[in-house]
Fold this protein.
Amino acid sequence: MSSPGNPPVTNNPRVSDLGERALIERIRRRVPAAPRELLVGIGDDAAVAVPDRGALQVLTTDALVEGIHFDRRFSTPSDIGFKALAVNVSDVASMGGAPRFALLSLMLPAGITQEDVDGLLDGLLELAGETRVHLAGGNITRSPGPLVVDVTVVGSVKPRKILTRSGARPGDVLYVTGMLGAAAAGLGWLQARADTPLRDSVIARPSDPAMADCVARYCRPGPRARIGALLGRTRAASACMDLSDGLADAVTQLAAASGTGATIDAALLPLHPAARDWFAAAGDDAVSACVAGGDDYELLFAVPRRTRSRLRGVIQESRGVSITRIGELTPGGSVALARAGRLETLPPGFVHF
Amino acid sequence: MSSPGNPPVTNNPRVSDLGERALIERIRRRVPAAPRELLVGIGDDAAVAVPDRGALQVLTTDALVEGIHFDRRFSTPSDIGFKALAVNVSDVASMGGAPRFALLSLMLPAGITQEDVDGLLDGLLELAGETRVHLAGGNITRSPGPLVVDVTVVGSVKPRKILTRSGARPGDVLYVTGMLGAAAAGLGWLQARADTPLRDSVIARPSDPAMADCVARYCRPGPRARIGALLGRTRAASACMDLSDGLADAVTQLAAASGTGATIDAALLPLHPAARDWFAAAGDDAVSACVAGGDDYELLFAVPRRTRSRLRGVIQESRGVSITRIGELTPGGSVALARAGRLETLPPGFVHF
């Protein structure tokens, strides 16, 4: 994707010269062979699929909008395509489901090139391959403004294995996958470089591997598809949601939906080391910044005492993704952060409006 | 939706003052009680539904983008919400399916008001009620540019009752629902008034009822949900698609997908009378204009000789929507319009890029 003032090179034609039909055909050819369950894929008025036997449908949609959710100076087309699918796979995982099919609704500004669209598809199809999602259809239209990548994912979950936000009870222990604050620190690092003159259209990644990990977590978050499906299948968790808007927001939402309060222990929080250092160097309270920062796409979940042995099985299968106890749900309605023997209010999460 | 230079009145707060959570809660309260099959609706990370027993999933998504698909001077918020669902219901109908659940992905520009969003929901929920679709979830985000209303519809269809574009054979007779050219003439009428000073933010509808019908067909197209489902259920049709991009485009696509040619008889085409007059008055060839005009959202379908008796049953159940024979599929690969004893090439359909 070319930045403003950085016109596409002539041997990389604009999508507007290619035409909608040719573009759809180009995408169709890049999609791997359809699984048997997909009876009608790209190219008809709608896709038709055989549902998983005995399973429920999980339905979610989430859009990435240029200027709101991504900046073409920060993210490559491949990053954008990857993340557009990731945020939806994350939603399905947080319900305990397995993603199956994706629909891609693309809104393309005039200057976009074939190479840009190919890049978007590269990223989306890479994650689709990793998470066994098949691109079943979608829609392409022009945009008079931003690039928009809106993805719908249809997944499946067995009855009685659904993880909602509302199933937890006081006394259930709260856990989180992975590390906190990485995406917020990564975005902060990119924003600090956004005003410097750029040689390329996308800012070069940090040379420090730990900070590069933070930038990658912002630009290309791997959703916790496997752990979400395991939590559902084993019925280890009583409630679950993802950290799209940060941990503080997720704890507040999950507790409210379950009719409980919550206490998070600051000493237990798995802050990303580079994120902690980044916020501390900026003079911010690292705990608050990591807890408030959005875009982590980790999972927050509650585990009742009686299913704790099932959680051990999930941890054994988690393939290197850490699962950390961070606090517990309480009978009261308040949500607090315990730090140095005192209770603080949780900082507000990421606000969209 | 206020037009540019027409700021919202102060007692109609902007959505940006309301906040995302409050807006979602406002929408949730307006949605009718969930059917039993919807286990998790608006408010969790994803929706969860029980699939129809023994049915296949039909999946489609289509976006309406301000400045591309609608103009706030032409369409009320309610029109936009109605049409955003209609175009997706039309896609499901054209597969022979029944729509069941919708997801709504909204991208809202800064100036949008609560009243605007309420209007969008009014229109969407009106058609949802008519077509028995339940709004199961979605996503709301800011837009730095146009208003975008992206809808996904999940429907169901019984195995062996799917209508694709590719099932027709030479000799099958082509039919179309409703009348042609109405939406294109309605849009033309609105565009002719777009440069005149407006007293209100939305152009007043034509006083002539026939032209008002054309404008309504453009702004608020009722999809042929019932006829599509009947065509699937009775197995009367061998192939079907909707006229989102006009009849000429649909005939070309359906014939190509089925590996046939097609001949359309100009004398049989059910041109909308007001559309025919509108294009003739403008000095255009009315047949070509009505055949090329997009946005009609009627259904084109092919009927083999052996299932013609089933079609009579569909016509009896079509509740006043006309079904007209317009031509047939041919063994050759060419698509032609027969007029006054001569074969012409079909005009190209609506082009998106």
Q: What stands out?
A: Chain A is about 35% helix and 25% strand.
